[in-house]
UniProtKB/TrEMBL annotation:
This is OsmC family protein. The lineage of its organism: Bacteria, Bacillati, Bacillota, Bacilli, Bacillales. InterPro entries: KH_dom-like_a/b (IPR015946), OsmC/Ohr_fam (IPR003718), OsmC/Ohrsf (IPR036102). SUPFAM superfamilies: OsmC-like. It comes from the Bacteria.
Amino acid sequence: MEFTMKKEGGYTTDFSYGRIDISGDGENGFKPVDLFVASIAVCSGGMLRKIFDKMRIDITDLHVAAEGERNMEEAGRFEKINIHFRITGKDLNTEKVEKAMALSRKNCSMTQSIIGNIEVAETYEIISE
């Protein structure tokens, strides 16, 4: 990836599917801290979705909510990322969902990259159709 400084502030980069503007103050693009949390959340959600498919668990929706807890006394360092999954489907088995969540955590590259430095707390709820 390459990033180009923007005159109005921040940076930009182009991908085959679009442009991302990034700005530390959030006025001229996404804040890096938001992209960091988003990368953990979406990696986890994407991996969970793949595992559900492999386990033949039929879901109709997977909503992911995430927030980071930061220590502002240590340069705004992340201490914890909270991820909550709302899993919608018919006749979902709690035991299988928990197994899928454990496999997702083990196989998400972003989560594995921060374990030991930042706590990742995952919760879920099942919404029956």
